[in-house]
Amino acid sequence: MLYSNTKPTESMESMESVESSSSSLPKIILLKPPPIFVHFETQFSRHFHFLKAYESPLPLPSFLAAAAADGVAAMFATANGPQITAESVFDHIPSLCCIVSSAVGVDHIDLVECRRRGIVVANAAGVSASDCADFAVGLVVDVFRKVTGGDRFVRSGGWCSDEFRLGRRLGGKTVGIVGLGRIGSAVAKRLHAFNCRILYNSRNKNPSVPYSFYSNVCDMAADSDVLVVCCSLSDETRHLINKEVLTALGKEGIIVNVARGPIIDEKELVRFLLEARIAGAGLDVFEREPSVPQELFSLDNVVLAHHQAGFTEECFQDLFELVKGNFEAFFSNKPLLSPVV
Amino acid sequence: MTNSSIPNPKPLLLINRVPDYDVSFFKHLSSYFTLLDPTAEVGSDREKYKDLLRTHASGVRACYGMGMSPLMKDTLDCLPALECVAGTAVGTDHIDLTECRRRGITVTNNGVAFSDDVADCAVGLLLDVLRKISAADRFVRVGSWPVAREYPLASSLTRKRVGIVGLGSIGLRIAKRLVPFGCTIAYTSRSHNPSVPYPFYESVHKLALESDILILCCTFTDQTRHMINTDVMTALGNKGVLVNVGRGGLIDEAEMVRFLVEGRLGGAGLDVFEDEPSVPKELFGLDNVVLSPHQAVLTPESIQASKDAALANLLAFFANKPLLNPVRLD
Question: Chain B contacts of A194, Cβ < 8 Å?
């Protein structure tokens, strides 16, 4: 997740020491630049002054202490950055009052500690839900109908010599959605139009949706042809998709994950795929990104992506506006636009 | 249909096919018909095929047309008694429809046997192109994720303007699938359909001017050959995306390749080509193109449904009942 997009950015400002505050713009600490910052740095820098820990020769605790001495109250957090805990961050910068995350997931931030210290946290909730859902559906169709497999077959010259092994019909299949939040609901709505039957497993039943609720993900897997993982990562959902669930999903079953890698027991998943104990997978996320189990590279029934489900030009534009809006709200003593509850 | 309604002896049914088709359905067909399958004897020798027809098929009233196996005037000339051609395909550009019309031969296709699966695949191709799914898969498999510093952002499907070319059974299903993604739908077709809520455009050029995406799912005829030409692709624009699940000949393929290579078209998802299985090699190096081996229609279920549809039409024909899926012959 560490790349800039291909648009050129202006050359980065030379590193300033944290002590000098010649800029009159509100100050924000940046431990590590999220992709949205890399893309929109010029625009962000018109409104805020970023103190870049990653460009400072100071060790992080000293950097943060210096920022505290300056009364810096805001931080821009990235999902793939360092864990934000009392020990790593809060103890060194008691002036911190606000964290805005560039991602929806805030599992890298100790929210309990934030609540205790009165630090408000905003995430990117809602911004990428439809794009993530679109990508999830794209992966489902791709695995069922071998869109990428077919493309590979044609590009390798196979069409002129071999017979293409067809995919399977998606219509009429049963889709089990793990987590019926914004993304899960959007996935449901889309796959419903493909004549799929929708089931869901969530923390709570939602009486206003027409889909069948399962309190147990294993039971849902047993009744599903495809599982689509859309829930957030937490202690409860870590390795939620385990050997039992994959066994219940069965040899004809397919799994798609656009949520977080650690929700699936990746070692087991790889084993199940290699042994053909499930029929295929579409994976946008992995347990130890950017590392992807190499055994998957030779499989034709797997589609792999590098955590791209939320990465569109339009989503990034919306995300820029949301992050900027959250910081502007904080600095004008207004409620955050997208607080984490 | 019970056996009591099948005339005895069973009516003669010509199997019109090129070699290498799956013939497992013949066992079922032969419970209703006496099959005449010249290809089993003559392989791809078309002259011997016609000789066999002249000797054995003079009384044949019906033909089971497999897939895209050609049925042209020279073959029809050997079938003076032919009244009905029941095809397993949905397209009919492999049949001389003008000649059939002249002789009063009715032609049926497989109705909607393929429609849902084609629609699924068309949307799958579109998602792949816009969201760069196959490109991402290549990127990961080649080991680039840990090392690359840059990767282009993809394009959202939300609020994209989709122009459907041919709002038949496939086009309608594509529209139904795309609406929940937040796309707006417009279309061009042989005629305006007042019962659909989408805006109608009289020409594909006008539609292209107002669209971000064109999806081709219309019939291939002399009128629609190369309908996607320089003007249309220019109108669609350099961010425009083409998806073709109709026939390769709907697009001026050489021109499209030029447009794609020169960056004058945003991308393409192509299931069909002008000279299958030959695909222009220049496309293989492009990340904004997704290529598919004419399989949008093909799932095990749709293949079975297409055979069942042909059989159902044949049974209706021999029972003097209305045909289920007659094709327009003009």
Answer: 120, 123, 177
